[in-house]
Amino acid sequence: MRMLIALPLLALLAAPAASQERESGKIGVLAQGKWSCAVPGIASAEARFLQTDRDFETIRGSRYKVGDVIGTYLRLGDTITMTSGAFEGRTYRAASEKRLRETEDGADTAVRCIHVPT
User: Fold this and answer.
1) Which of 13, 32, 56, 83 is most buried as measured by Cβ atoms within 10 A of its Cβ?
2) What is d(CA 69, CA 87) in angstroms, rounded to the nearest whole number?
3) Burial code of 57-75, b = ≥16 C-beta within 10 A, e = fewer?
4) What is the pLDDT of residues 7-52, one digit of tens each?
5) Within 13 Å of residue 15, how many CA atoms lie on the same side as its CB?
6) What is the number of other CB atoms lying within 10 angstroms of the CB of residue 56?
7) Alpha carbon of residue 8 to chain centroid
8) How far apart are CA 95 and CA 34, in angstroms?
9) Residues contacting residue 99 through CB under 8 Å, at least 6 positions apart
10) What's the pTM?
């Protein structure tokens, strides 16, 4: 009976540790699949404007695809850097596991990318 009570408690204690590891610069990967990018729109018109030229697909082994071009990326904590391929040099900040913000000189840009479920 004590074990049944202890397991949920351990899970609660482990959750902040996982978050702290991401923040501290641990190597990680993005969710595999398509990432769709857009910039915010205006309330009286389009809610967002798609930026299809910034879309990409993550595949196995810290790699991504843009069209037929395959590149690599490095995720350290919440920072993602495209290290080769079509988007070499681009950087992103993980706002969550399914949302990215493109960054430039360390500051967020208007471009937001979301993971599209398959």
Assistant:
1) 56
2) 10
3) bbeeebbbebeeeebebeb
4) 444 444 454 544 444 456 899 999 999 999 999 987 777 778 999 9
5) 6
6) 23
7) 28
8) 17
9) 112, 113, 114, 115
10) 0.76
Domain boundaries, the chain: 25-115
Q: What CA–CA distances, in Å, run from 110 to 9, 28, 37, 38?
A: 39, 24, 10, 8
Q: pLDDT tens, 66-114?
A: 999 999 999 999 999 999 999 999 999 999 999 999 999 999 999 999 9
CB 80, CB 74: distance < 8 Å: yes
Burial 29-54 (b: 16+ CB within 10 A, else e): ebeeebbbbbeeeeeeeeeeeebeeb
Give me the residues paired with residue 72 across strands.
Answer: 63
Question: What is the DSSP secondary-structure string of 13-51?
Answer: HHHHHHHHHHHTT-EE-PPSEEEEEEEE--TTS-SEEE-
Residue 103: C-alpha distances to residues 10, 78, 81, 87, 93 (Å): 36, 12, 10, 13, 7
